[in-house]
Amino acid sequence: MKVFKSHITFSKEQRYGIFLLLLIIVILQSIYFFWDKTTEVTEIPKQDLIVFQNEIDSLKAIEIEKAKPKRFPFNPNYITDFKGYTLGMTNEEIDKLHKYRKENKWINSAEDFQKVTGISDSLFLQISPYFKFPDWVTEKSVKTKKFQQHTNRPLTFNQKADLNTATALQLQSVYGIGEKLSQRILKLRGSFEGGFISVIQLQDVYGLSPEVIENLEEKFTVKTPRVVEKVNLNTATTNELVQIQHIDYPLAKEILEYRTLHESFNDLDELLKVKGFPLQKLDIIKLYLAIN
Question: Of 95, 167, 215, 237, which sees the most CB atoms within 10 A?
């Protein structure tokens, strides 16, 4: 009878190593089983928690303040539809402001702004600190007082000087107009064959503020306007439109597209609805247009 022997045999050293390995495993398992897994929780005093929470709240408040849109000083006479919306004004209040400005009137104080627009007292208190008017409006200098004394009685049309024949020295008699501004006015006048059509065109003089234009209008007017053949807005071509100040090819294209979509213009003020139309230049552009 044959005796089967195991093919797996270990030496004495190998058997000792296996026994040692098993012993280590048993010891580690015992340690893991009997080890207390609970950890000691450090208790933070309530007063310290309050301090930490206050610091977190203050940091959050700082971040919220940083995230708010920043406001910078601005002249309320030039508030656009978008600017008025961001300030919190209603459409009716914005329309009142634009209507007032179309009458060639200017707002010279925060009180005037509230009176014209009718904004609430709460909104007035929020935005009025950011109103910025020209220095000649806010500073009550001696020169301003003398100027006001001489302009208490408005001059009649015949008493005013003709802007199309005025010299630089005559223009400099207006408070707010110096040598540079007077030269810019004469340069703009010289760019038109025949001079100005209206005082409104002074809006194109760089650095000439609305308030100074108002001062100038008290002493000057256009008595000899150049003759202009107005373009019919409802039949004008692109080439005719681009001959007008402040109208380029992209704007002319938008005007024609609007006219086609709505069949015609009913009023020149309807140009304000044209995409990209320069609101501040409407009065100047209207000098060259008509609706027949």
Answer: 215
